[in-house]
Amino acid sequence: MDFQIREAITANMKGHTASDIRGVVEDAIQKGEEHLLPGLGVFFEKWWNMTDESNKQSVLNELATAFAK
C-alpha cells in the first residue's frame, strides 16, 4: 500500500475554514494519541513553507520557551 500522509491530509483538509482546522488541531491535542502527531506535523510543515522568516523566528522562540519549562 502506497500511502502518502502529506497528500492524504492535504486532500482531506482542502476547503476547510480556519475554525474547522482549529477544531481538528484541538481534537488531536485533546485525544493525545501518538498516531495523530504526523498529521499535526503536516499542518506545521504547510505553515512553515508559506510563512516569512519573521514568523518562523517568532514560533521558534515560542517553542524554545515551551521546551525550556
From TrEMBL:
Upregulation: Expressed only in the forespore compartment of sporulating cells.
Subcellular location: Spore core
Chief location of this protein within or outside the cell: other
GO BP annotations, alphabetical order: asexual sporulation; sporulation resulting in formation of a cellular spore
Domain of life according to the entry: Bacteria
Pfam families the UniProt entry points to: SSPI
HAMAP family for the chain: SspI
Family per similarity comment: Belongs to the SspI family.
NCBIfam families, A to Z: SASP_sspI
Name of the protein in question: Small, acid-soluble spore protein I
Species of the source: Psychrobacillus psychrotolerans
